[in-house]
Amino acid sequence: MGPFDYIVVGAGSSGCVLAERLSRNAANKVLVIESGPVDSSPLIDMPRGFGRTLTDSKLTHVYVAKKTGGHNEPEYWVRGKTLGGSSSLNGMVYVRGQPSDYDEWDCDGWRWADLKPHFKALENHELGASDMRGTGGPLNITIHPTKLPVLEAMIAAAAEMDVPTVDDLNSIDGAGFGYQPRNIWKGKRQSAAKVFLRPAMQRPNLTVITDTDVLRLTHEGRRITGVRIRNAEGERDIAAREVILSAGALNSPLLLQRSGIGPADHLKGVGVEVLHDAPGVGRNMREHRLLRAQYRLREGSENAAFQGAGLYLSALHYFLFKSGPLTSAAFEVGGFIRTEPGSGRPDAQLGMGPMSIDTSTPGLSLHGFPGAMCGGYVMRPESQGSILIGGPDSATPAIIDPNYLATDYDRRVSVALFRFIRAMFTQPALAPFVVGEIDPSAGIETDDEIIDAYHRIGGAGYHAAGTCRMGTDDASVVDTRLRVRGVKGLRVVDISVMPSLVSGNTNAPAMAMASRAGELILADAG
């Protein structure tokens, strides 16, 4: 195969959009390499099928991260391994991040004014076009449609806590609460593979190969010449004019390090020959640390719709009408809050819905009684973790240290948002529904107990970013045109280049950033 003009490593949210953008020019010969299989499972299309696909070893990469806060149990991070990547398995909450997040990066070409047109061009929003929304794009965006009484009460409770009710959470640069925007259309998931990659695969200049691992980058001197791959046919090299890593904030830095681009002392220590000493590769990791509170309800819960006879009825409703509980995103309502008066920008994100998880049993099961949950995290965490290779072989587990809640700011806001959740569930609007808080969070009271709960029973937001930081300084991994410093012919295009984490979920930013990156790459090619 080859040579190609561009090799895109990874067919996730960024890789799918980038491949579509680059292959629009028929003169560009583009190859996309995905380590997982084709996205043929019917559970990918079913929105609430993610409860099963996230535990399917054929569709997921599983990483083991180090827990912090004095707890030594392993923590498992899951990422998509199929066409569409994590966009084929995630909770489908479409949140772009607040405009001020991008301006805070202070990177020429990546401010809100630069990215806003790309967000709008991607979208076909059911609320119609506005200054902050797009229509006519390939990605259908809808608002959660089923206004159950308990969901209305949750939104009203937030309003009683002085959080404005909004129709579109992506139309604000401040606090707001309402129904979640989702990339779901006519009851089906809108993954990046379905929306962007599959239509582009009809072009003769785009080649997509699956079930293929990229072992390392090939090079001549400091010029990257292609990739070494391995699949059922064995190992071989494929050449390209330019290689673009869109393997995600975990795999992109690991692939750089295995190829000799990373912190020299560590690479030498694990037996990798250094091509370029880049201490920032794998550093600056930002991740959301989530803690949920759960409540027993008198009525209004959907727990019964996901077990026993209720599940069969939900499945029947889905297959016949593509509607009902199985067509919902991870959370039905949510929003952005300020945890401290006068704090200016919102500092925490909440997601909530009418279900509760029985943590006393293995696996993912719901309570047999009516329940609800609300989870939250610090939107722009200051704590910085890291990801490093454990050895030159891709089969050697990575060393992941999230370094959760390492700063006073992260701890303070984490405590405040958890107390905010508790206060919401005592508001008059929710009083007719709520019986009381239940385990595992019930009984946690002091600030120290709350922080310990984040470490002990909390979880990752699955939004790790920043591990190949973009910037104008020499310590940044990529420049503002996403070219890897110290070598030629190599870029990174995924959320690993974020200087800091945006306010919320990362799927939408990954796609808009890839669209912007494609524009820059084509401009550089002349």
At the fourth level of CATH, the homologous superfamily of the domain at 145-179 and 288-460 is Glucose Oxidase, domain 3
**Count of DSSP-assigned helices:** 13
Low-confidence stretches: none
The second-level CATH architecture of the domain at 145-179 and 288-460 is: 2-Layer Sandwich
Rg, rounded, reads: 22 Å
Termini gap: 25 Å
Number-wise, the strands total: 25
User: Which class of secondary structure composition applies to the elements?
Assistant: alpha/beta
Provide the CATH top-level class of the domain at 145-179 and 288-460: Alpha Beta
CATH topology category name of the domain at 145-179 and 288-460: Glucose Oxidase, domain 3
Mean pLDDT: 96
Largest sheet: 7 strands, mixed
Describe this entry's structure for a reader:
It comes from Sphingopyxis panaciterrulae. With 526 residues, this protein is of the alpha/beta class. The chain contains 13 helices and 25 strands. It has helices at residues 13-23, 42-45, 50-53, 99-105, 112-122, 149-160, 192-200, 248-258, 264-269, 308-321, 408-424, 447-457, 507-525, and strands at 4-9, 30-33, 60-66, 74-80, 123-125, 139-143, 176-179, 181-182, 184-185, 188-189, 206-209, 213-220, 223-231, 234-245, 261-262, 276-277, 289-297, 333-337, 348-353, 371-378, 386-388, 399-401, 434-438, 459-460, 490-492. The strands form seven sheets. Strands 1, 2, 11, 12, 13, 14 and 25 form a seven-stranded mixed β-sheet that branches. The longest helix is centred in the C-terminal third of the chain and has 19 residues, at 507-525. It is globular, with a radius of gyration of 22 Å.
